[in-house]
Amino acid sequence: MEEMEFDYEEVVKATENFNPRRIIGKGSHGMVYKGVLFNDRLQVAVKKPSEGLESLHDNSKLENEIRVLSSLRESPHVVNLLGTSSYNDHKKLIVMELMPNGSLHDLLHGHANKTTWPKRVEIAMQIARAVQFLHEAVVIHRDIKSSNILFDSHWNAKLADFGLAVKGGLSEPGPAPAGTIGYIDPCYTTPDKLSTKNDIFSFGVVLLEIISGRKAIDVCKTPASIVERVKTSDELKEFCDTRMPLPPNYMVGSVTRLLSFAARCVSLNEEERPWAGEVVMGMEMELNCFFRVPAWRLCVLKGVKQKEEEEAFCEYYKCVKWEEEVIDDHDHQGRFG
């Protein structure tokens, strides 16, 4: 994607000279500020390296993010690069599309959690599509986590922060292992262990967060790791977010399927982990089943009671259940060729 060069003075003006009140987040290499460019016609997010990194002349993560994002086509699944701005002897800022509704971490772990089960399944599929998009573009993100999943003005989930991402094939040893505790693949211990399976593990942790409402690591709980917690849960209801009602009957199949994918994603056996496209196919089947059932939608339009609505949905669901077997028969590789 071709990047635009923004005038630095305009960026300074747009962020009120990087006023702390304009800070909307923190990336892997500095602060993120909200700005307004082109006479208030374009709202943007501006990433500025932290003063500590600037003093050390370490802009490697920022430069890497620019390099990776510039190589990608525009996508509805990732936070897109709008351009850069140069200052002080070739130092750079990143100008990104603004994501005004915060992060998935905020949504799941904030005090005002109002996320429905259908929306959680939809978010999971949007993230899966983002991972698939990156892997098809030969990019490994290396830092997939709920705080790096942001929402646009329509509450669509997009993957952000490419400071640690790796672009290219796996013919040469990659960089030293990096990521976030609780999300990083335990199999990723040396540079030669870099693969798309590392991202799949991190994605699986995010799926577990979406279902349970628990943080990836919570020292106040036993076990502290969400991955270890799922191993001790015998039933779906034991793992689901306790702050909200259990999934209604017509959502049980979708949430169960989601939990099944998550468990495979965080398997210590890398070969058991699905590839991103397989997850997308499975999730799309579930969402198509939920949102595009003629009988179910007709019931909603006519205002029938919830029990009748659920029965109509379940009858249709039985008809498409066989499609799951097709997905399970696929044997895909989860690494770059």
From TrEMBL:
Binding, ATP: 48
One family name in Pfam for this protein: Pkinase
Keyword Transmembrane: no
EC identifiers of the protein: 2.7.11.1
Substrates-to-products reaction catalysed: L-threonyl-[protein] + ATP = O-phospho-L-threonyl-[protein] + ADP + H(+); L-seryl-[protein] + ATP = O-phospho-L-seryl-[protein] + ADP + H(+)
Keywords: ATP-binding, Kinase, Nucleotide-binding, Serine/threonine-protein kinase, Transferase
Record bears the keyword Nucleotide-binding: yes
Domain (Protein kinase): residue spans on this chain: 18-291
EC primary class: transferase
A single GO molecular function term of this UniProt record: ATP binding
Recorded coiled-coil stretches: none
Gene3D superfamilies with a match to the protein in the record: Phosphorylase Kinase, domain 1 (3.30.200.20), Transferase(Phosphotransferase) domain 1 (1.10.510.10)
Family indicated by similarity: Belongs to the protein kinase superfamily.
UniProt protein name: non-specific serine/threonine protein kinase
